[in-house]
Amino acid sequence: MIRFILLQNRQGKTRLAKYYVPLEESEKHKVEYEVHRLVVNRDPKFTNFVEFRTHKVIYRRYAGLFFSMCVDITDNELAYLECIHLFVEILDHFFSNVCELDLVFNFNKVYLILDEFILAGELQETSKKVRFLFKFY
Amino acid sequence: MASSMRGLSVFISDIRNCQNKELERLRVDKELGHIRTRFKHEKGLTPYEKKKYVWKMLYIYMLGYDVDFGHMEAVSLISAPKYPEKQVGYIVTSCLLNENHDFLRMVVNTVRNDIVGRNETFQCLALTMVGNIGGREFAESLAPDVQKLLISSSCRPLVRKKAALCLLRLFRKNPDVVNVDGWSDRMAQLLDERDLGVLTSSMSLLVALVSNNGDAYWNCVSKCVKILERLARNIDIPQEYTYYGIPSPWLQVKTMRALQYFPTIEDPNTRRSLFEVLQRILMGTDVVKNVNKNNASHAVLFEALALVMHLDAEKEMMSQCVALLGKFISVREPNIRYLGLENMTRMLMVTDVQDIIKRHQAQIITSLKDPDISIRRRSLDLLYGMCDITNAKDIVEELLQYLSTAEFAMREELALKAAILAEKFAPDLSWYVDVILQLIDKAGDFVSDDIWYRVVQFVTNNEDLQPYAAAKARVYLDKPALHETMVKVGAYLLGEYGHLLVRRPGCSPKELFAVINEKLPTVSPPTVAILLSSYAKMLLHTQPAEPELQEQIWAIFKKYESYVDCEIQQRAVEYFALSQKGAALMDVLAEMPKFPERQSALLRKAEDIEADTAEQSAIKLRSQQQTSNALVVTDQIPVNGSPPVGQLKLVKIPSQNMETSSFEQRRTETYGAVNKVDPESSPSVDLLGDLLEPLAIEGPPSVLTATEKGQGLEANPNSPGALVLASFSDQPNTVQPTINIAERFSALCLKDSGVLYEDPNIQIGIKAEWKTFHGRLVLFLGNKNVSPLISVQALILPPRHLKMELSLVPDTIPPRAQVQCPLDVVNIQASRDVPVLDFGYKFGTSMVNVKLRLPTTLNKFLQPMTVTAEEFFPYWKSIPGPPLKLQEVVRGVKPLSLPEMANLFGSLHLGISQGLDLNPNNLVASTTFYSDNSRALLCLVRVETDPSDRTQLRLTVASGDPILTLELKELLKEHMISIPSITPTAPQGPMPTPLQLDPPGALSIADDPGALLAALL
Known about the structure:
Radius of gyration of chain B: 36 Å
Pfam families (chain A): Clat_adaptor_s
Largest sheet of chain B: 6 strands, antiparallel
InterPro entries (chain A): AP_complex_ssu, AP_mu_sigma_su, APS2, Longin-like_dom_sf
CATH topology of chain A: Beta-Lactamase
Family (chain A): Belongs to the adaptor complexes small subunit family.
Oligomer: heterodimer
Shape of chain A: globular
Keywords (chain A): Cell membrane, Coated pit, Endocytosis, Membrane, Protein transport, Transport
Main location (chain A): membrane
């Protein structure tokens, strides 16, 4: 199962954080800091998987943004790696050519989209044409 | 944004425009202050404003600032009647709060109303929040409603897929609260679903349910296979669910994951269909250019591999898998290589493919040098997993080499793994010592204390190794810039065994002292303590004393007498005082006795590292199921011919060994000061730890046994005298045992593990644990050959007083494998008769058949206890005479000193009560006998010795059962007349008190009405 999802830029600014396990505030800050340190310096030629405490982080970099998912050690790495990509495609579809700024100014919408995509740490909908029920007012 | 929330955008821009962190904080503080005041005067707040402020709070929170107010406002939005506010309330609450938050209680009712209400959008919002943060209270009040939604035919898929995952969350967190009885039919129905969203969510739910209770969901197996067929073969899904041309790879992966929780697939049709699909996946996955497509198809492929391994497919398919993995571990693409390594490691856990994987060893070692730490870790895991006696040397040497360049993050793990492999698969023990010393030398900082404790244990337990280890330590101590751990090991080994090197150049006591003492000024207090002990040992071993050395050492003791660390101070004072009295020094500082065999703390440490996963891993579940079986095939046993000390088999079996514990305790008492050197390496009375104690089939004790017997009573148990092993046999077989069976048997009467029988083909070890009138023995049948032993037979011929049940013994023991056969014993009555194991096997053309007595002797059902005078005398007097109390003058007794006799009694599970008998030449002991017939019976024993003639004594035994009294008396006589040697320990100064591991002695009296009555009288 997915423990948490983080969107961070190269400087380590969190653009989106969603936790599916209950963590204390201080712990969340620590996790975000550590995951950023872990992925930011990795060579692009390296694997997209890296051990993190008793779990593993599957991450992918899009321009200056790192999408990281922390999953169980027994989970299928490539399936989650492509899950990240599917999420990015959905965002891309929604914002038409998404960039970091879109996510910054529309962080609330990103949360809504994410909730349609992943729920309770599991994949909910894999159709690229996600039918968004929600409306913005 | 339908109505762009201007205020929010402006705030975000402001934050972005802040030049530095300080300005950002000011801006945030200002905003928080503003929001706080607005929330305080809630009256004028429009719904729009409230929403805006709550979003701002979330943004601030995301930036990493503490938001310690406003939670209430966010939560209260959930109860708003209109969708826009409600939506914000739900989303922000599920980001800000977690399941333990009190505020959530306030909305349980609102959430429930939204879920059971008719408004679909409200249902979705509520299900999403509960799915993301739902805790126990939600589970208790909402689970039935969520279940209803999931199976409702009137709900749209949009709601139902959320309900499935929401239920999954509630079930994962609180499986006891969510009632899923009878859900197997519901799940089977759900798997017929056409909507892929609902199906994907339901599959995740199924994985959670089935990992929790596999047996209940059998009816889902064929449905899962159908889904796979639908996706992978028929590609019967809507276009938007294919991902780069691949039919929902995620659903395929999940489905195959679910199937891994079913032990097998019995229905032949289903099995065939599944294998067809798997075959298609294995063969039809090609490497393509598009990264995403490649990843997705390989995600499916790797899951298929895992499923094939799990199903134990036919040989052909398995070798296909291994071939694929072999290909993967040599590709350039890092992700695939990583997964190849990882899955090879998993494969090792479930199937026997060691030999094929060994062919790739060179390639795997290359990956150990990869720049990516993730790949190096997988490679290390695989090398660790594939290591056995044939490649241990190569692999461990690679690890050692890599150790010098590895980054800090990996060094400790690397050192630990190298140490474990060296221990497990050492072709000879000197190599093991070499490896550990190298480890300490190269990566001292990362070598935990456990590692060097372990090497000390081995050296202590293996005499052949002692001069070698000491010489090695001597060499290392000459090196400049030594790691402190090396100083510790070196000083310890030279202190204990330095005297064995005395004839070598540079190894006179004086020189050894000098080389150790050089380090003294620079080491930390714990090491100083070890050095002091080793000086004391040197004094002991330097006979005749060298005045000069003595002076030097005394000076050091004197100096440390006023040292600030009290441990060191105490040692200095005690050693100084002791060294002034020659004889006492001998007793207290004698060579350390052998350590009881136990599982390597290292191995335990390695096993302790446990992953935390949402579902139990299928592989793990499976391996657990396997160990519950009678057979555990472990790795090689070294062939006969290599010294017996090389046999370090670590086989996990539960054991709670009383004897070991009391032995430990005794030792701790006797060796108090010395033992403090390494409190952790001397086994603590750690019952939990002992649960994993291994059987170690040890060699040396037998050697000593023989020596002692051969040399009679004068033999000094510590003299490293001639190690001649008289081998005799009364077997008509052509294959002769290589050990003295009778002696082994007597030795095993006094301890609980060891070798029962050994010949050139097989070794039978035994390990027992006893609890009241129950016993559990495990026989370890180890094939020492490279070819299998066939027609293996084992029959138990139990005497009448024992009920015994031997689990199935396999017909064949594979080459170099060990098989465990548990054997349960229940004691019904007191008797000295022992069961006989009729054991036979065929090797080549020769049939071997032996009859072995099993050490299930009367004393195993005794539990020692100490009684007070108030308890003892009334009971003693209440038993008038025969047949309950028997007395006999025994002649021809082996002359034993009282402490030695007390030791013997301890080994027989009799507790010595000191001071009860005023005559110092007498011994009084008591114990409780357990049997199924009588439960617990108190037995009292008194021995009166004659100091002028130690070969005779008067023995009195009393108990509430005439048979028990007689049998116990005879048993004691047997052991006193011909004393089977007990593990030679150093001569002990103060008489040891056998440990009362079982204080509820009083309790056992209370259980026994007879004893209670007697005690009252």
